[in-house]
From TrEMBL:
This is PTS mannose transporter subunit IIA. It is found in: Cytoplasm. It holds the Pfam family EIIA-man. Its main location: cytoplasm.
Length: 139
């Protein structure tokens, strides 16, 4: 089963994991790791290492991070670079992405990553009540 680390600036990772579990149910082999305002990227890398050790043995690991290029991303990319065949990283964390990741945890990392990219994009939509979209059943 794919292990997942959900990570963010501040408490976002814990909150979104809690929300996902309200919808999906209790997650297995999933941990939230957060970066506090007074912590460094090195501190976060140490948190990642502790999380990984607590979930061992790991066959594959996916990092879901809040923001491309931010500190959680940078620290996770260093970890992924040490084991690119078993570890992956997807940025732009949102609730549909996380719920989908939980539902396909039994699949391979190579299959999960492109699927999550599509799911996350599909999770961004708007309701346009001014146009006749045929979605009248939404109201």
């Amino acid at each position: 089963m794919l292990a997942i680390i959900v990570t963010s600036h501040g408490e976002f990772a814990r909150g979104i994991l809690q929300s996902a579990e309200m919808i999906f149910g209790k997650a297995q082999r999933v941990l939230a790791v957060t970066l506090a305002a007074n912590e460094s990227v090195e501190d976060l890398a140490n948190h990642y290492q502790a999380a990984i050790e607590s979930m061992e043995p790991i066959t594959e690991l996916l990092f879901l991070v809040d923001l491309w290029g931010g500190s959680p991303f940078n620290a996770a990319s260093r970890v992924v670079a040490q084991n690119p065949d078993k570890y992956g990283l997807v940025a732009g964390l949102n609730l549909p992405m996380l719920i989908e990741a939980l539902s396909i945890q039994d699949q391979s990392l190579a299959d999960v990553i492109p699927h999550l990219e599509r799911t996350a994009r599909g999770g961004v939509r708007h309701l346009d009540l001014r146009a006749d979209t045929g979605d009248d059943d939404l109201l």
